[in-house]
Specification:
330 residues; alpha+beta; four-stranded antiparallel sheet; 48% helix
Length: 330
């Protein structure tokens, strides 16, 4: 496989870097798709192999492994699963996360994600994994069915409970954005220090720089409002088909005439997302060089964090705008 060139984030300002990382991820996605095509060509029916998370959003940075999901009907052959497991665990490739998420669109929940096996298994309420799914190969009907089933779950009798849990995630990541510290499973993790102007990145110790604060805050704010739009009306299902990339999502919503915030707020929101993605990738890059601490300008970061916490509590967009302009997310 041809590996695209990823430049040192320090070599570009955050706006130029955002354009670079978008192109880097698009080329990487094509190269990974070729690997999958070579392995599975001729057996497309009944399943779809796709990327999720930052890979799907074209926001993957240095050092991250490619995450994949297998979407299938309940009758998918066991051999397909085994071939995918062999592909992602091939040490000669070294690019895949070996933890494959597997979903039967006939039987499993699209809102909840189960990643890994046994003791290391992680369960997440994370609709954005299906919202952002980016197909590599296979039956596109699986992709479509997964999104429509997600919409059904959000509109079901359990939909309000799911929506409330998403809002809890938004509040959780807002707290991290404000103070840099996250409480998770009765432990505290300091991802960044706003007074000293340093970010900490060390995955083995659960330290993630700006990922669990500003980046997750914006991502889950969008998930909150996508979920609300889907629950409100059939028109809201348009939100199922937004672009995967976070900034492209927001721009697409604005072009569609559904944005609720001002142009100034929109500019601040998208610009800060690019800024914090750059800062996060700087931390990743430095970690690859043996450094777990990355310095930043505390004044600028404080201002950007404050701006996010003023914009994100309100509904960013709605396809029923006459009902929601100026209102908080409810």
């Amino acid at each position: 496989m041809k590996h695209p060139l990823h430049v040192n984030p320090q070599a570009k300002d955050y706006r130029e870097y955002f354009d670079h990382i978008l192109a880097y991820n698009e080329i990487l996605h094509r190269e990974v798709a070729k690997l999958v095509l070579d392995e599975f060509q001729g057996s497309e029916d009944g399943f779809c192999i796709a990327t999720v998370g930052s890979d799907a959003r074209y926001e993957k940075g240095p050092g991250s492994l490619v995450e994949v999901i297998l979407l299938s009907s309940k009758s998918v052959k066991r051999g397909i699963r085994r071939r995918l497991e062999l592909l992602v665990t091939d040490e000669n490739r070294g690019i895949f996360d070996p933890r494959i998420e597997r979903k039967s669109v006939d039987e499993d929940s699209m809102v909840e994600s189960v990643i890994g096996e046994a003791e290391t298994q992680i369960r997440l309420i994370s609709p954005n994994r299906i919202l952002d799914v980016n197909s590599l190969f296979g039956d596109q009907k699986m992709h479509q069915k997964a999104k429509l089933k997600l919409a059904e779950e959000l509109k079901s009798g359990q939909g309000r409970s799911i929506y409330d849990r998403i809002k809890d995630k938004v509040r959780h990541h807002k707290v991290v954005t404000l103070n840099g510290t996250q409480r998770y499973k009765q432990e505290y993790f300091q991802h960044f220090d706003l007074d000293d102007g340093v970010a900490f990145y060390d995955p083995e110790k659960g330290l993630w720089s700006f990922k669990q604060g500003p980046l997750r805050y914006v991502q889950f704010t969008i998930v909150r409002d996508v979920s609300a739009a889907i629950r409100e009306s059939e028109k809201g299902k348009r939100a199922l088909y937004l672009p995967q990339n976070t900034v492209s999502k927001l721009n697409s919503i604005e072009v569609d005439g559904a944005i609720n915030i001002s142009q100034e707020q929109m500019s601040d929101l998208t610009d800060s997302y690019k800024f914090f993605l750059h800062q996060y990738h700087l931390s990743q890059w430095n970690h690859r060089q043996g450094l777990t601490i990355t310095a930043f300008d505390p004044k600028e970061v404080k201002e950007r964090c404050k701006s996010l916490t003023e914009i994100c509590p309100s509904r960013l967009f709605s396809y029923e705008q006459n009902q929601t302009i100026g209102k908080k997310a409810s």
